[in-house]
Amino acid sequence: MRGPQGTLYGRNALGGAVNLTTKAPSNDFESSARITVGNLAERRAEGRLSGALKRDRVMGSLAFARGARDGYVRDLNHPDQPLGGDDLTSVRGQLRVVLSHGSEVVLSTDASDQAGRILSNHKILSPKPGFAVDNPANPRDVRLSTVNSGAVKQSGAMARLTSQLTPSTTLISITGFRGLNNQYASDADASELDLLVSRTHEWQHQWSEELTVSGRHRKVSWLGGVFVFDESDHQRVWVDQTASRTQVQLDPRVDAASRAVFGETTIQLTPRLSGTVGLRYTNEQKDIENTGGLFGLDAPMAPVAGSTYAYTDSIVHTAWTPRFAVAMKLAHDAMTYVSATRGFKSGGFNLSSTQPGRGFAPEWAWNYEGGMKTTLMNGRARINVAVFQMDYTNLQVQTPIGIGVFDIRNAAAATIRGLEIEPAGRIGGGLEAGGHLAWLDATYDRYIAVGTGGVTGDAAGNRLNNAPEWSGRLWLEWTGNVSGAIRMTLAADATAQSTVFYTPFNDTIQRQVSYAQLGARGELGPSNRRWTVNVYTRNLTNTNYITAAFGASPVAFGGRPGPSRETGIQLIIGR
After folding, report:
1. Domain holding 109: CATH number?
2. Is residue 289 in a domain?
3. Given this model, what pLDDT does residue 12 score?
4. Read out DSSP for 419-476?
5. How many domains does the chain contain in total?
């Protein structure tokens, strides 16, 4: 769902929302497994079991995943420690208990442990004056003085109670808890020079409760609810500056509490015309306790005189986020719609600030959208078209201001205008084709941007960060029988995008020019899909590109290389 979804989903659903629903266990016994082997020593195993523990009353499921893959960027100073790989173990369990007709509770828990040599903006794009570095010619080769590392542990639990109060009214309660323990170390100067090392350790936990009641009566459907969210985050940062034998220390603790009440109603005005109106009120408070300073790197690591600080600060924001929409069903399986929606992104604190009062305000946006969704040729083809405009105020822009330190600043205003076209259809003979084309006019209206070292400039008229003017995807897929009940699928796709900039200044160094990628996939298996064998490749031509850029290093401007060619084979067994 594109555009602000704040009416139902609340804060930070400003650009859109993706709603993922895991498959609930049922009475039917189900089992599946997937094994993947690929280049860069990729090997993965996944499995799932589901079924009844007590038929019609208690059902459960258990899923696991274990996988590892070497990095695709070589650190020539540490050739046995490539960057960008992963080593993941995860498990998820669900228990579904039917309490009575129309009432049930689903309990779920999950945990994951991911490690690997983290890849950040370590590829030198351009050295800075006064520094001579060895920048390998291969776009996916780097030279670092420090061995990068990373480890992320996550866990969570959820309880979802569903109760049918009346034949047309349903109550749903969702209670959730999540925890995070994240550690990483990175060569912050992005070179073989032993100048800067950044280390971070973050502990975070949160819990939430959402209670909704929904119903439908004749021509009216409605939903109302309340939402409670609490979060605690402790994020320590150390930056070793070996040349001066000093260490920058940041030790912020942030607590957040959010409360909301919301509702939405859709009325069927005529057999073809419906209208929707919704509103959400949010009250949010954040508190910070922050300490830090500059310390000697050698024992006993005494603070540098006058560099330490300690303070507390609080902010409170409220938000009204409405939604208005009208939809009309047309002839021949088509519908058209218009909508206006407001959303917001939470304000907060800059963790590197040495004194209170230097946070950032909430980001606001109104999204105006109109479109059409239609099915043609007796269901053999469809085409979706949407035009939209998003008007931002206080747009939050992430700015690197120092080694390992980002600040968020508010742009005065920005506007995004866009057009999206998504066609798909069956050509015949088992052949299908489709695609997606997007055009964006995304610019800052008013913004005095602040860059590394406090450099300022007027960014009005410049493109927003990471917002290509053109992007799209084209895919082609054929499916047919090759022998009896054995079916084969062959698919290919191409994606492309125009130039993107990674700073509001739209400079020629921290950007990615237009590029395209190709992918392909083949699948073989019986029609009942009891098993399938897949072969795949992504980035077939091994296109070189970056996905981010960073200019705070005193040595050079750095970029994050995108993934190289990936190839693999999968065996999937399901019942």
Report:
1. 2.40.170.20
2. yes
3. 60
4. EEEEEEEEEETTEEEEEEEEEEEEEEEE-EEE-GGG-EEE-TTPBPTT--SEEEEEEE
5. 1
